C-alpha cells in the first residue's frame, strides 16, 4: 500500500521554497504487471511534470545491492527534479495528476520518496 505521510509532507513544504529539489523514488513493483503499469503512469505523468517545471533526471532498473547488512534491493529508481517544493505540492493536487497517480499506485508494492537538496560545493 502506497501512502504519503501528511506530517512529512507538511514539514517538507514548510521549509524554504527558493531552490530546486530532487525527489528520489525507490520502487518495488507489484508482481502482476506492475512494471508495465508504472511505464504507463510515466507516460501519463511526463506532460504533467512539464507543466509544473519538473523533469525526470534519471530512471533505471535496480541491480544487486553491493553493500553488506540489511539492505533492501529495489526494482527501479527514478530521480525527478522540481523547480521548487511548491511545484511538487501543486502537481500532486492537480486533478489530471490524480488520475495518473491512481495508475502509478496500482503498479507499486513499496516505495520510498526521499527529497534531496544539493550539498554546497559538492558539484
Automatic annotation (TrEMBL):
InterPro entries: Dimeric_a/b-barrel, DUF1330. Gene3D superfamilies: 3.30.70.100. It holds the Pfam family DUF1330. This is Uncharacterized protein DUF1330. Residues 35-103 form the DUF1330 domain.
Amino acid at each position: 500500500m502506497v501512502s504519503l505521510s501528511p506530517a512529512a509532507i507538511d514539514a517538507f513544504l514548510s521549509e524554504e521554497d527558493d531552490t530546486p529539489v530532487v525527489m528520489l523514488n525507490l520502487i518495488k513493483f507489484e508482481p502482476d504487471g506492475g512494471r508495465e503499469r508504472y511505464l504507463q503512469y510515466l507516460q501519463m505523468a511526463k506532460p504533467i511534470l512539464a507543466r509544473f517545471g519538473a523533469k525526470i533526471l534519471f530512471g533505471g532498473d535496480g541491480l544487486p545491492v553491493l553493500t553488506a547488512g540489511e539492505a533492501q534491493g529495489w526494482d527501479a529508481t527514478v530521480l525527478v527534479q522540481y523547480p521548487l517544493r511548491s511545484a511538487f505540492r501543486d502537481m500532486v493536487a492537480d486533478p489530471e495528476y490524480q488520475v495518473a497517480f491512481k495508475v502509478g499506485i496500482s503498479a507499486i508494492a513499496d516505495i520510498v520518496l526521499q527529497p534531496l537538496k544539493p550539498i554546497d560545493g559538492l558539484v
